[in-house]
Write a structure and sequence with these properties.
Low-confidence stretches: none
Structural class: mainly alpha
Shape: globular
Oligomer: single chain
Mean pLDDT: 76
Distance between the termini: 23 Å
Number of strands: 0
Order of helices and strands: HHHH
Helix content: over 70%
Number of helices: 4
Strand content: under 5%
Radius of gyration: 16 Å
Length: 107
């Protein structure tokens, strides 16, 4: 649900050029982020051991930070639609991994 909300927000942002649709898309994205982080923290606290939680979380932040640096350096070279597609892809990958963790941990 959170993934669809974020993707819907992105869709509104880059398909509609009016101020109101851009604002609604931004609000939808921010709601999805507000739902994602508490959910991620809950899953992280359930499935990662306390003594390894910080290390594992930081290891997975490295690729994310590299993507952010790449986008910031190449902001003028990459089309806005491509940036939004990359964000949608990363959100989809996160949701897929969360589903794998949930279903493998439920067994």
């Amino acid at each position: 649900v959170v993934n669809l909300l974020a993707m819907g927000g992105f869709f509104l942002i880059y398909t509609k050029s009016t101020y109101m649709m851009t604002l609604i898309g931004f609000i939808l994205y921010e709601i999805s982020v507000g739902l994602f982080y508490p959910s991620f923290s809950k899953i992280k606290s359930e499935y990662l051991p306390k003594d390894k939680r910080g290390t594992l979380t930081n290891i997975f932040k490295i690729p994310f930070n590299l993507i952010v640096i790449f986008l910031l350096i190449n902001t003028n070279k990459i089309f806005t639609i491509s940036q939004f597609n990359l964000l949608n892809l990363s959100i989809s990958i996160i949701v897929f991994i969360m589903q794998l963790i949930f279903f493998n941990g439920a067994k």
